[in-house]
Amino acid sequence: MKKIITIIVLIILMIVTMSKKEEVIIPKDAIRFRVIANSNDLKDQQEKKKIAMYLLELGAVEQEVLEQQGLIRYLLMHFQTMEQHVLVEMKMLQEMIL
Q1: Are 9 and 82 in contact, with CB atoms under 8 Å apart?
Q2: CA neighbours within 13 Å on the CB side: how many for 3?
């Protein structure tokens, strides 16, 4: 039973590590939006505020995504550590069998 669990864990870890991709991180100050109204007309100013609020909401979503990416990185490191422990255990089991 232990061997089956170990093999399943190894397969999952191999899939996770093989699907790892390089990501490009753009500094927060690299991209800036400046919303300019077409005129001082009330309608244009309201549209400007509406767009500015939408962009702020997108920024909040981006922050949440960055936090989730950090959690994923942490979990990946945890899985890699588990993988190393499983490999050591498998090696010990193999030595015991032989």
Answers
A1: yes
A2: 5
H/E/C letters for each residue in the chain? CHHHHHHHHHHHHHHHHHCCCCCCCCCHHHCCCCCCCCCCCHHHHHHHHHHHHHHHHHHHHHHHHHHHHHHHHHHHHHHHHHHHHHHHHHHHHHHHHC
Note the maximum CA span of the chain: 85
Q: How far is the C-alpha of 20 from the C-alpha of 16, rounded, in Å?
A: 7
Q: What pLDDT digit, counting tens, does each position of 45-80 carry?
A: 888 888 888 877 877 777 787 788 888 888 888 888
Phi, psi at 23, each rounded to 5°: -120, 145
If one counts every other C-beta atom within 10 angstroms of the C-beta of residue 47, the result is 14
